[in-house]
Amino acid sequence: MQVRKILVVCVGNICRSPVGEYLLRDALPGVEVRSAGIGALVGHAADETATDVAAVNGISLAGHIARQFTPDLGSGQDLILVMEAGHKREIERLSPQLAGRTMLFDQWTGKKGIADPYQKTRDFHEAVFVEIKAAADGWAQRLTR
Predict the structure, then answer these.
(1) From 52, 78, 116, 137, active-site residue
(2) Fewer CB within a 10 Å sphere, N or C end of the chain?
(3) Catalytic residue among 10, 34, 101, 106
(4) Residue 10 appears among annotated catalytic residues
(5) What is residue 61's predicted lDDT score, i.e. its pLDDT?
(6) Whether residue 15 lies in the annotated active site
(7) What values do phi and psi take at 83, rounded to 5?
């Protein structure tokens, strides 16, 4: 199956999923990549520390606005990438038909989940960025074969 639409999901849609979204957008031209949160801080910009760490690494999160995951939003996607196993369970609870399209963002880099850096130190944000970048690269390699 050709993947043309990807949704990246975390909790608030202000730290991990925007970073993952923008990294995948850069790595996968021609693929529509969006993000959402299962408990989104709807209408908020990306977290300030996440934005700063991304910027230092050449990724701009400017213009990001957090949105809520909904079954309708999920149903329009070819692939849904979540940051933790609990997010997968929640999406499957809300939309059982999406189970086969929902995978861990770090599927190819350990499948242990990516910790939430919200309100944590800058060092923690930097470590999470490195994990998300490696995971995004793993997806890009597999989706461009």
Answers:
(1) 116
(2) C
(3) 10
(4) yes
(5) 97
(6) no
(7) -85, -20
